[in-house]
Every structure is written in structure tokens, then in C-alpha cells.
Amino acid sequence: MQEQTTVGRMIATAISDAGISKVEAAERLGCSRQTLDHWIRDYSAPDLDRLKALVDFTGRSQEDVLTAILRGNGLEVAVASVRSSDPGWLKGMEPLFVDLAAA
């Protein structure tokens, strides 16, 4: 079984590949170094408002980054929808963001 890639792994790989510091990466992503550390360690996951910045920074597809963000935020319900949707997958997805932990 293939292990799921997390946002933290995506960010750590991008930092390593770019040869930059965590401080510089945090500046590029518009967050604090402490927040970035939490994302890298998968203690927390970024909000969806960081999607474009993370796609640009990591060089990964929107689908890959969105799926990792959703999983990191405990939103497994939306992951299946992302995987099976049309190219306009981001439009109108807000109703799909159901927190399974609250169920």
C-alpha cells in the first residue's frame, strides 16, 4: 500500500529542493516559522486560503495539495470528491467540507 503524501512532506521536500531556510519558506508562504514547523511536522495543516501559495511553492498539482490539506484537516469526505471531479473542482466545494470528527 502506498503511503499518503502529507502537506508537511510536500513542504519539507520543496524547502530541501530549493535550498532555502525555513524562515525564507515561511515568508514565501505568508506564515510564521512556527506555523511552518507545525505544518512540516503534520501537527496542523494549512487552511484552504493557502492553496495557491502551496501549489506555487511545492510545484505539486492543485489536486495533490488540496487532497493533502483536506486529509490534514480531517476532511476525508471531500477527498473522494476532489479525486472524481471535473477541472472546475474547487468551485462550489465549500458544502463538501464536513468535519468527520464532529460527526
Provide key terms for this protein.
103 residues, 434 Repressor (Amino-terminal Domain), 6 helices, 53% helix, globular, disordered C terminus
Structural summary, described in words:
This protein has 103 residues and is an all-alpha fold. The protein has a single domain, classed as 434 Repressor (Amino-terminal Domain) (Orthogonal Bundle). 53% of the residues lie in helices and 0% in strands. It has helices spanning 7-18, 22-29, 33-40, 51-58, 62-72, 76-83. Helix 5 runs antiparallel to helix 6. It is globular. The termini are far apart.
Biggest sheet layout: none
State the distance separating the first and last CA atoms.
28 Å
CATH topology heading: 434 Repressor (Amino-terminal Domain)
> Given the helix and strand composition, which structural class is it?
mainly alpha
The radius of gyration computed from the alpha-carbon positions, rounded to a whole number of angstroms, is 14 Å
Can you write the helix and strand succession as a string?
HHHHHH
Mean pLDDT: 75
Number of domains: 1
Unreliably modeled segments:
94-103
* CATH architecture identity: Orthogonal Bundle
Overall shape: it is globular
Number of strands: 0
Number of helices: 6
User: What is the class in the CATH system?
Assistant: Mainly Alpha
Summarize the amount of helix as a percent range.
40-55%
